[in-house]
Amino acid sequence: MADYGIWILIAYLLGSISSAIVVCKLLNLPDPRTQGSGNPGATNVARLAGKKIAAIVLLGDALKGFIPVYCVHLIFNQPFLSTLTALAAFLGHVYPVFFRFQGGKGVATTWGGLLGLSWLLGGIFAGTWVLTLVVSRYSSLAALVAMTGATFAACLFYGFIISAPILIIYVILLWRHKDNITRLLGGSETEV
């Protein structure tokens, strides 16, 4: 089990690397924490620097969830350990040790973690996200609907106990989107 503890630490530390901040710094772009919504994530970077740069950020954030979860899945073949690893990567993104525990909302990192756990869960998340975004034009709503669908699917396919870390991610993700939810309900949320 000590070996698994190292993977939890690796997942958290990988999650703590902010793709948005690193990419913007490398490209001499403004710090996303000081521009737009102030969120270091792909949606804010898309508004600041365009969709191509945002795609790089999205890929980086997804990989830091996917890589440790997929490795743990291959090494230990224990779904509960894999979901715990996804939680560690997510917590790293949301509360990064390298950025004074002030991170993003964790949507792309969650998607990567789900993809590392199960292609089906990752596919449900991505498909639901894309469909909701196309229909609504709200990235925040797409994230919330996608996470709801993926959480339900995880509980259905893996059971409540194994999916408990995913439920924790879901609750924190809802909390991180509380301002977006208020704006969505009030009709003042910004479209993509």
Question: Which descriptors would you attach to this protein?
Answer:
single chain, 192 residues, mainly alpha, 77% helix
Describe the structure.
The structure is a single chain. By secondary structure, this protein is an all-alpha fold. Helix content is 77%, strand content 0%. The chain contains ten helices and no strands. It has helices at residues 2-15, 19-26, 42-49, 51-76, 79-94, 107-117, 119-136, 139-158, 160-176, 178-186. The protein is globular. The model has no long low-confidence stretch (mean pLDDT 94).
Describe the protein's topology:
Blueprint: H1 2-15, H2 19-26, H3 42-49, H4 51-76, H5 79-94, H6 107-117, H7 119-136, H8 139-158, H9 160-176, H10 178-186
Helix pairs in contact: 1-4, 1-5, 2-4, 3-4, 4-5, 4-6, 5-6, 5-9, 6-7, 7-8, 8-9
Q: Sum up the overall morphology in one term.
A: globular
Rounded to the nearest angstrom, the distance between the terminal CA atoms is: 44 Å
Mean pLDDT: 94
Question: What fraction of residues sit in β-strands?
Answer: under 5%
> What is the helix fraction of residues, given as a range?
over 70%
Q: Treating each run of at least 4 consecutive H or I residues as one helix, how many helices?
A: 10
Largest sheet: none
Element order: H for helix, E for strand: HHHHHHHHHH
Provide the low-confidence segments as ranges: none
* Rg (CA only): 16 Å
Secondary structure class reads: mainly alpha
Tell me how many strands there are: 0
